[in-house]
Specification:
The chain is an alpha+beta fold and about 260 residues long. It is built from 5 helices and 8 strands; from the N terminus they run H-H-E-E-E-E-E-H-H-E-E-H-E. The longest helix is centred in the N-terminal third of the chain and has 22 residues.
Length: about 260
């Protein structure tokens, strides 16, 4: 072998042996693709999101089950139904003459309510008028309610109290003179109710309501007997009853259909 060939081949052989060592010692970020060397692709770790907390899971479930109605601030409704009322259920002290006037009757009730709502609580006022064969009764109550949203179906409980007025007595039972004298009674009405609203749309509901009333009524007889000198013997006897003060504690129950608007 010629000496010149050995002189040229030894340096090339040493460079070939040192190339892998230089690649291993190359700093991070250096261009390792020179000379045909290429670093392996970075391995992406599988970063799985942590499971949601119980609070987040409950909020997510509530969002899926929510009816989508959003918040409600104002409500109003109208109702009609049947009312059974006893004027002297618990106490009878000559509020009416029991011989001529049936103190326990069933009639038609008309009502309307309006109020505001904050989350599941409502506050408002309700007017009801009951038409009976011998007399009429109207009430005006303040009302507090608790609602239980279950999607499109919403049960609720109401408590209320306010003013009650009894009047419009049939003159055939008490005599025309007594009727024109303005015979009537007034007092306190306390009511508890349970109902259900079904949201047909976000603002319109249909439903039903079952309520019970406690009535505390009284009347003054000072001016009733004035001029009551005509009529049958029974009507004259009634005049003597109504000439005195009277009072009673009664009770009633009402079942009604309700249409409502909610905004």
């Amino acid at each position: 072998m010629k000496p010149g060939f050995l002189c040229w081949s030894v340096p090339f052989f040493l460079c070939a042996l040192s190339a892998p060592a230089l690649a291993e010692d190359a700093p991070a970020g250096a261009n390792l693709e020179a000379g045909g060397l290429k670093p392996p692709d970075a391995v992406q770790s599988d970063q799985t999101a942590p499971p949601p907390s119980p609070t987040e899971a409950n909020l997510d479930r509530a969002d899926k089950e929510d009816s989508g109605r959003g918040l409600e601030f104002v409500w109003l409704n109208g109702e009609v139904g049947a009312e059974t009322l006893g004027l002297q259920t618990f106490k009878a002290n000559n509020l009416v003459d029991a011989k001529l006037v049936n103190s326990k009757q069933t009639g038609i009730m008309y009502g309307a309510g309006v109020g505001v709502r904050l989350l599941v609580f409502t506050l408002g006022a309700r007017f009801r008028l009951g038409n009976f064969s011998d007399w009429d009764l109207w009430t005006l109550n303040g009302e507090f309610g608790l609602h239980i949203p279950l999607g499109r179906v919403e049960p609720y409980f109401n408590l209320g109290a306010g003013y009650a007025s009894l009047g419009s007595f049939d003159s055939k039972n008490i005599g025309s003179n007594l009727s024109s004298a303005g015979l009537g009674a007034k007092g306190l009405d306390v009511r508890g109710a349970f109902g259900v609203d079904v949201y047909l749309t976000d603002t319109f509901t249909v439903g039903g309501n079952l309520s019970g009333d406690l009535l505390v009524l009284s009347r003054s007889g000072k001016s009733v007997a004035a001029g009551a000198t005509t009529g049958t013997a029974e009507q004259q006897a009634a005049a003597n009853v109504y000439a005195k003060d009277g009072s009673s504690v009664g009770a009633g129950a009402t079942l009604s259909a309700v249409l409502g608007l909610h905004f």
